[in-house]
Design goal:
The chain is an alpha+beta fold. It folds into 7 domains: 155 residues, GAF domain (Beta-Lactamase); 107 residues, Beta-Lactamase; 102 residues, PAS domain (Beta-Lactamase, 2-Layer Sandwich); 166 residues, Beta-Lactamase, CATH 3.30.450; 97 residues, Beta-Lactamase; 80 residues, Helix Hairpins, CATH 1.10.287; 151 residues, Heat Shock Protein 90 (2-Layer Sandwich), CATH 3.30.565.10. It is built from 27 helices and 34 strands. A 6-stranded antiparallel sheet has the order 3-2-1-6-5-4. A hairpin with a 2-residue loop joins strand 33 and strand 34. The N and C termini lie far apart (114 Å).
């Protein structure tokens, strides 16, 4: 088989074919009439109008054949286009070029073929009109003449289409008000339309006579080289069109941007480009818009980098999830906690990819409450542990993330490490428990020493969570159990004797008298006889000294690892308990050592790093104080012992009186509570105080109090508050700028925004405005706390103020399908700042509306006394949960009542309102029960 050769003018031929835009187009009646007529008059099986593409022959019209194309390599038409006239093969079986062609030997069974080339207006053979039959034959002279006539008709139809394409193109260009140019590459002849000249500020007559030099003179010199390179690429067939964005000097002297597009529409016989036709469009506005958009994008990117820097440097974990739980954002604190270097490594991941299974289940439940019900959660969570296995605690908030329509599209998570704060509170409680246990033991004079020591061991086992407690007596290598508390299964009793070397107590004696083993498994302790013989897994023990001699040990142990790892406070407890045991043993041996015993109990008292005082509840007089309280208060011990607790802290006395500690037989504990303590130099410092009421041997009521100086913590909180203020100020400026930029984009001032981008811009604008509201709330709270919020107090009529407030909230009420009505309001004046008054009422009314069922009414009314005016906002919602009422006016406080509809918010509204009302000389309070809540604001009547 002989494949058809490639013509010398193949590139120009293909360009001419492609310029028709006819390949792969639907059938057309004009061509189908020709092939149908040829088949019927010439009596052949198949007639085709075949167009020869680079690698195929495609059939524009076909009669007697289902296929739409075949390979050029086996085509007959590929041979036919090489000649000028009829290409006829009477019998393919007798022609060595085609005898073994698949179209001859295969299902097509071509035996006869005749083809006439069809040419373009420039003479390029585009394809053929061909006749095919399965029987050998030879065309007669009359058949050949008819065949040529039909081929000329098909060729004329192609050339007519070619002419129409050019005319159509020019009409389109003229209709779009684009500049039009035609250039003869070979002669330099150039044709411009009037619009081409107008773009540069000229009339065409001012530029005539025109040539290619006219364009070269007006174009920016730096763009000429690019133009030449792009033209050559198009002429060489590397690009389908010529396209260049360039600058042209306007008649008035400035530069205008134009987009030139062109295409070769005819070629010379030698295959060189002849006529190029193109368009000339003014894109100056587009370029300027792109420049402005670039500038805006750079500004937005700068703001984004600033916000990202702020977020990454806030000492709080921040992350965003979509509805499926995939992470969309994580700040540096969140990445550091997870041990992930790059944010890209966490994006798209779920909690199950990052956390243990038990945490994932809990987190999913919380997420679903936020995503499905719009709840805002604030809770304490134990999420992980440090390198030593100690739990890390976080205060976690989860807020719904909504789109412009209010639909929940994800959630924002905030968490801050409160391990230290929790541990401090935990330690305060532990200290209180220590004092309670020690006081119970020390104050017990009714029972025998054996009973008290056994009770001390039992309390120690309970407090430490260990099963066995022993007081031993050691003489040389002899270890004797003197007193013990142990499970019955251990068969351990007082009087049992062991070798000292078989006990962990031998190691305690060698280790400065103390030893703590959290877990013996996997350590050198596992090879010790105490583990091998008795299976002791956890151990804490200290040496007991009586009369300055080693008496033995006080130790607690268990055969299993303790649920909670032993802490320094636990060892301190054993030390304190050991001191009491030592003192009790010494008193039993020598009553004369009573003073020494009291001194050692004083050591227990003085060991605490927290201030401790024992007070007579009947008169508030201090009975005893430790060194820590002396140091933190600045008074000497003698001065403190002449004072009462009210003189040291009136706030603590108020709390004791308020909670009825003195009178109540059941109420025996106070706190932890924060109070102000008076320092000797006159200033007051903050302290966390826990108190425990106890009874003395004579029945008098005493109060142990533990004072923790939290001045440093408050200073840190103040610094944090200042950081929030600074961050809020720094956020508001870029957020305002971003909001303005987004509004310009959304309004179309910077050009038309694509639909998809417009939606994203709207979402970004809404979330930016929400952030601005949050920042404003933070700034208001900061000003209130710092006392920097200005107030313009004026005597104002109450009725117009309430009417304005109701009008302002009407739209919000309408959205929630709640009605706001103003009831009876007497004609009185109040002394308030109008703007701040409206801010307070807006907060109260918006809360009432949010928690009111649809169709309900929120009522505002007022009543007066001779000196005050009380304004009441009343709703019929679910009421305020009992557990939440105590902190309702605290910052960032929000109820977590799953029986109520949960609403969004920052938790600042009521706190800000409370502070504003007090700053204006008023007061605010509430009463609530299911189905009715009333907030009452009291102002001075003018």
């Amino acid at each position: 088989m002989q494949a058809p050769p490639i013509p010398d003018n193949e590139r120009q031929r293909l360009l001419a074919l492609n310029s028709l835009d006819i390949l792969d187009t639907p059938p057309e009646a004009a061509f189908d009439r020709i092939t149908r007529l040829a088949r019927n008059t010439l009596g052949v099986r198949t007639v085709l109008i075949s167009l020869v593409d680079a690698n195929r022959q495609w059939f524009k019209s076909r009669q007697g054949l289902d296929a739409t194309e075949t390979s050029r390599a086996i085509s007959f038409c590929g041979h036919a286009i090489l000649g000028d006239g009829l290409f006829e093969i009477p019998d393919t079986h007798a022609d060595p070029r085609f005898a073994d062609n698949p179209l001859v030997t295969g299902d097509a069974q071509i035996r006869f073929y005749a083809g006439m080339p069809l040419r373009s207006r420039d003479g390029y053979a585009l394809g053929t009109l061909c006749l095919i039959d399965t029987a050998a034959r030879t065309l007669t002279a009359s058949e050949r003449e008819l065949f040529r006539d039909l081929a000329e008709l098909a060729e004329a139809e192609l050339q007519r289409r070619e002419q129409l394409e050019r005319v159509h193109l020019r009409a389109i260009v003229e209709g779009t008000r684009a500049g039009l140019w035609e250039w003869n590459v070979q002669t330099g002849a150039t044709v411009f339309n009037e619009r081409w000249a107008e773009i540069a500020g000229y009339q065409l007559s001012e530029l005539e006579p025109v040539s290619i030099a006219t364009w070269q003179t007006l174009v920016h010199p730096d763009d000429l080289a690019s133009s030449e390179a792009l033209l050559n690429a198009h002429f060489n067939g590397e690009t389908p069109i010529y396209e260049l964005a360039c600058r042209m000097r306007h008649k008035q002297g400035h530069w205008v941007w134009v987009l030139d597009r062109g295409k070769v529409v005819s070629w010379t016989e030698e295959g060189r480009p002849e006529w190029v036709m193109g368009t000339h469009i003014d894109i100056t506005d587009l370029k300027e818009s792109e420049a402005r958009r670039l500038q805006t994008d750079q500004a937005l990117q700068s703001r984004e980098r600033l916000l990202r820097t702020i977020i990454d440097n806030i000492p709080m974990n921040i992350y965003v999830k979509d509805r499926s739980g995939r992470k969309l954002l994580a700040n540096r604190s969140e990445l550091n906690q997870l041990g992930i270097e790059q944010e890209a490594d966490i994006l798209g991941k779920h909690d199950r990819d990052l956390y243990p299974e038990h945490l994932v289940v809990k987190s999913d439940q919380e997420d679903r409450a936020v995503l499905d019900h719009g709840e805002t959660l604030s809770l304490m969570e134990n999420e992980s542990a440090d390198q030593h296995g100690q739990p890390l605690w976080y205060r976690v908030s989860k807020l719904p993330l909504r789109n412009q329509s209010g639909d929940i599209i994800g959630l924002v998570g905030l968490s801050i490490d409160v391990t230290e704060e929790r541990n401090i509170k935990h330690n305060l409680h532990r200290q209180l428990q220590f004092l309670s246990v020690l006081n119970d033991i020390a104050a017990d004079t009714k029972n025998t020493l054996n009973a008290r020591l056994n009770r001390a061991l039992a309390l120690g086992c309970e407090h430490l969570g260990l099963e066995t407690g022993i007081i031993s007596h050691i003489e040389q290598d002899r270890y004797t159990v003197q007193w013990c508390q142990a499970p019955a299964s251990m068969s351990l009793n007082a009087g049992d004797v062991f070798s000292l070397g078989d006990t962990f107590c031998s190691l305690a004696l060698q280790n400065d008298g103390e030893l703590v083993i959290h877990s013996a498994t996997g350590t050198d302790y596992q090879r010790h006889p105490c583990y091998q013989l008795f299976g002791v897994e956890t151990y804490v023990g200290i040496r007991l000294m009586v009369n300055s001699q080693v008496y033995g040990t006080l130790n607690f142990s268990a055969s299993q690892r303790a649920l909670n790892s032993l802490e320094e406070n636990d060892l301190a407890f054993v030390r304190l308990l050991g001191h009491w045991v030592e003192s009790a043993l010494e008193r039993e041996h020598d009553q004369q050592q009573l003073l020494q015993r009291e001194a050692r109990l004083r050591v227990l008292f003085e060991l605490s790093p927290l201030g401790i005082a024992l007070t007579d509840l009947s008169n508030g007089q201090f009975i005893a104080v430790n060194d820590a309280l002396v140091q933190q208060s600045g008074y000497d011990r003698d001065t403190l012992l002449t004072m009462t607790k009210r003189e040291l802290s009136s706030g603590l006395s108020h709390q004791i009186d308020q909670q009825g500690i003195r009178e109540s037989a059941e109420k025996d504990q106070i706190g932890p509570v924060e109070v102000k303590v008076k320092h000797r130099d006159g200033h007051q410092y903050p302290a966390n105080v826990i108190g425990l009421k106890v009874s003395d041997v004579d029945g008098s009521r005493l109060l142990w109090t533990v004072y923790e100086d939290i001045s440093d913590r408050r200073r840190i909180e103040r610094l944090k508050s200042e950081l929030v203020s600074t961050v809020s100020h720094e956020l508001r400026t870029p957020l305002t700028s971003i909001s303005g930029s987004l509004k310009l984009l959304a309004a179309g001032h910077l050009g038309e925004v694509p639909a998809a981008a417009s939606k994203m811009v709207s979402v970004a604008l809404k979330n930016t405005d929400r952030l601005i509201l949050l920042v404003n709330d933070l700034l208001d709270m900061d000003k209130l706390i710092a006392g920097r919020m200005p107030f313009d107090l004026q005597p104002l009529a109450l009725q117009p103020l309430l009417a304005t407030t109701a009008d302002n909230i009407a739209g919000y009420a309408h959205v929630h399908r709640v009605t706001v009505t103003i009831g009876e309001v007497p004609p009185v004046n109040v002394k308030v700042d109008a703007y701040r008054f409206e801010q307070v009422m807006a907060n109260l009314l918006s809360n009432a509306i949010k928690f009111s069922p649809e169709g309900e009414t929120v009522t505002i009314d007022a009543r007066t006394t001779t000196s005050t005016v009380t304004i009441t906002v009343r709703d019929h919602g679910p009421g305020i949960p009992e557990a939440f009422r105590a902190q309702i006016f605290q910052r960032f406080s929000q109820a977590d009542n799953r029986d109520n509809r949960q609403k969004g918010g920052t938790g600042l509204g009521l706190a800000i309102s409370h502070s504003i009302v007090q700053a204006m000389g008023g007061d605010i309070g509430f009463e609530s029960r299911p189905g009715l809540t009333e907030f009452r604001v009291v102002f001075v009547r003018v």
